[in-house]
Structure formats: C-alpha cells, structure tokens
Amino acid sequence: MTKIRRETVVFEALALLDEAGLDGVSTRQLAKRLGVEQPALYYYFRTKKDLLAALAEAAMTPHTTAPLPAPGDDWRAWFLDNTRSFRRTLLMRRDGARLHAGSTPTGDLERVGRKMAFLVAAGVPEHDAQMAMLAASRFTVGSVLEEQAGDGAELPPGVPEIDHESAFEAGLALILDGLTRRAAPGARTS
C-alpha cells in the first residue's frame, strides 16, 4: 500500500472540492485521485465527517492566520476587517460557506478568545461582543451561501441582479451600528 501524508490528503481533497464542489467530494473519488485504495484514507480520517472537518479547518487558514488586533487599534475598523477577511476566505473555495457551516473552530479557540478580549478591553460589553461576533459570523456564512448558490443562475425577467458585496457591506454596517450603540460611551476607537 502506498503511504501518503495527511497534508497531501487534505491538499488533494481541497483541490477536489474546488473542482467538483462539496457534493463531489467522496472518499472514493479522493482515493482515486491520490492513487490509493479507499481504506488508506481511514488511517487519517475515520469518517467523511472527519475529513470534512479537516477541510473546513484548512480552508480557513487565510483567515485564521490573519493578524490579531493590537491594543490601540480602532475596534470598529478591526471588526469590519475581521468580518471581511472571513468572507474573503469563504469565497476562496467552491462551496466554502457550505463546507464551513456547522463546523466547530477547534483550532481557532485561542484566537477567538483574543479577539473577544480585544473587544471587551475596548469597551464593548462581553455578552454583546460574543453575540456580535456570532451574528457577524452567521450573517457572513449565510451571505456567502446565497452568493455561491446563485453563481451562474439565470434570473427571471424583471428580477434585479443582486450585488452581493454591496448587500454584505450594508448588512455588516447594520451589525456594527447596533454594536456601537451598546458599547460603553467613549469606547476607544484608536
């Protein structure tokens, strides 16, 4: 049996995702692509769910390696940049939002904690910071799901085409406006 590295399996699975979409990712297709028997994949991933979790984590690398906020940063600008980074990362992969939906950020928990601590230190109440991060995340995933599902779809006559980026920015501004109203008066902006 040919020995393959876990990183190679994940890399090829991401390439298969980009080519065939989430519904086209199967252990059978992946094994064929790697030139191995299907059971060879079970050494690294006992189930397809385990494989998809590893793909979701790997697909998020551009976002999870972005710089963390620094003391003194404007929390509003950081919140916008962080959410936009998440959206860009989801859009980098075919079906990126579907892959991410429902995944648990097990490898990102320390970073999430540091982001939360930054918002709280800037004057955002802890519960509101948590809910805003959750709302922004779910809004972003939903927006990208809609955007990726609609790619190439023909609209009926008279139905205006949606400018996904403008719609995303408008929704993001509403979330930030709500959070700003809940932040402590004089919450630091820089």
TrEMBL record:
InterPro entries: DNA-bd_HTH_TetR-type_CS, Homeodomain-like_sf, HTH-type_TetR-like_transc_reg, HTH_TetR, Repressor_TetR_C, Tet_transcr_reg_TetR, Tet_transcr_reg_TetR-rel_C_sf. The keyword 4Fe-4S does not apply. The keyword Ligase does not apply. Residues 26-45 bind DNA. It holds the Pfam family TetR_C_1. Residues 3-63 form the HTH tetR-type domain. It comes from the Bacteria. Keywords: DNA-binding, Repressor, Transcription, Transcription regulation. SUPFAM superfamilies: Homeodomain-like, Tetracyclin repressor-like, C-terminal domain. PROSITE patterns: HTH_TETR_1, HTH_TETR_2. PANTHER family: HTH-TYPE TRANSCRIPTIONAL REGULATOR RUTR, TRANSCRIPTIONAL REGULATORY PROTEIN. This is TetR/AcrR family transcriptional regulator C-terminal domain-containing protein.
